[in-house]
Every structure is written in structure tokens, then in C-alpha cells.
């Protein structure tokens, strides 16, 4: 039962990461605005998109779940930090949807990493 729940969490995280890629890779105005505000447009937007794609894929491969979760924690932790320090909770009138989605993704990734900690080679 726990394995199915963890698989579900991994899939949810991967979907969240991968569904945002269309905004980053197509240069959606909201994505451009966000990355411009933090001084990372356009290279940071594309690089973060690539890292999110890699993290989403790694989360779906059983042997690399811990890498995907750790990478997601780093990426999303950075997003949360930028929301708190530069962007604010609500960006372009989204009522905080991006921020709260990032928080949920961060928490779920922490849960997935915790349950996969025995697979981390340098912690064995």
C-alpha cells in the first residue's frame, strides 16, 4: 500500500514539474515576467526548465527517485526563496497559486526523499 502511495506522490510531482515546462519553453509572458524580476531571463528560465524536466524523469525511474526528489527540492526550494524575498506570494494576480504549488511540490518531494533515503549511495 505504501509503495502505491509513494508512486502516486512521485507521479504527482513529475506532472507538476512537467506541466510547467510549456510556459518556460514557449516564453509565456508570465514566465518571462517572473524570470525577468529575478534577473534570470532568458537563460535561467530555460535552464530551470531543463532541470525540472530532468527531475521529473528521474522521479519516475525507480533507481533514480532519490536524485529526482533531491533535485526537485533544490529547484523548488529556490523558487520558494525567490517568492519570499523578491516576487511575493502573489505574482501577476495569481492569488499565490504558483507559490502554494511550489510549497506542495517541495513537501511532497521531501516525503518521497525521506522514504527513499536508503537508496542514497553515500548514506549507506
Automatic annotation (TrEMBL):
Entry keyword annotation includes Nucleotide-binding: no
Keywords: Membrane, Transmembrane, Transmembrane helix
Transmembrane segment boundaries: 7-23, 43-61, 66-85, 97-115
InterPro entries linked to this entry: DoxX
Domain of life (superkingdom): Bacteria
Subcellular location: Membrane
Name of a matching Pfam family: DoxX
Coiled-coil portions: none
Membrane recorded as keyword: yes
Chief location bin: membrane
Protein's name in the database: DoxX family protein
Organism field: Lacinutrix venerupis
Amino acid at each position: 500500500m505504501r509503495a502505491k502511495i509513494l508512486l502516486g506522490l512521485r507521479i504527482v510531482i513529475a506532472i507538476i514539474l512537467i506541466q510547467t515546462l510549456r510556459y518556460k519553453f514557449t516564453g509565456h509572458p508570465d514566465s518571462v515576467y517572473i524570470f525577468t524580476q529575478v534577473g534570470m531571463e532568458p537563460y535561467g528560465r530555460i535552464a530551470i526548465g531543463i532541470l525540472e524536466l530532468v527531475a521529473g524523469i528521474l522521479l519516475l525511474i525507480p533507481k533514480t527517485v532519490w536524485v529526482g526528489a533531491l533535485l526537485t527540492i533544490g529547484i523548488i526550494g529556490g523558487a520558494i526563496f525567490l517568492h519570499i524575498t523578491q516576487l511575493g506570494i502573489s505574482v501577476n494576480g495569481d492569488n499565490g497559486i504558483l507559490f502554494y504549488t511550489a510549497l506542495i511540490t517541495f513537501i511532497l518531494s521531501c516525503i518521497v526523499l525521506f522514504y527513499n533515503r536508503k537508496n542514497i549511495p553515500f548514506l549507506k
